[in-house]
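Need a sequence for this fold. Nothing fancy.
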């Protein structure tokens, strides 16, 4: 299984160091970008299948990616990222 996302908790209490916050922000932004791409792929797959089993599969995939995107946007809000920076 390919690992696409960083393994982090996006903890807002990592420390007071500016470099830690920049690193957490960069990881979060990269994961948000990858999530958007994966969501586009899932919607594209859903639009192009006709088999009922594959339709169910893509429905679950879209829902899972949407939940991950919601989680990441909530973490971005906790880190006080401006909405225009969120992809």
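Here you go.
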């Amino acid at each position: 299984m390919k690992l696409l996302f960083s393994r982090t908790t996006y903890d807002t209490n990592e420390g007071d160091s500016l470099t830690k916050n920049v690193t957490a922000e960069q990881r979060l932004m990269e994961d948000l970008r990858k999530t958007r791409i994966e969501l586009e792929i899932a919607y594209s797959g859903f639009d192009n299948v006709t088999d009922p089993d594959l339709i169910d599969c893509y429905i679950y995939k879209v829902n899972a990616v949407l939940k991950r995107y919601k989680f990441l946007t909530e973490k971005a809000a906790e880190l006080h990222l401006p909405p225009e920076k969120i992809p």
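For context: The chain has one domain: 18-85.
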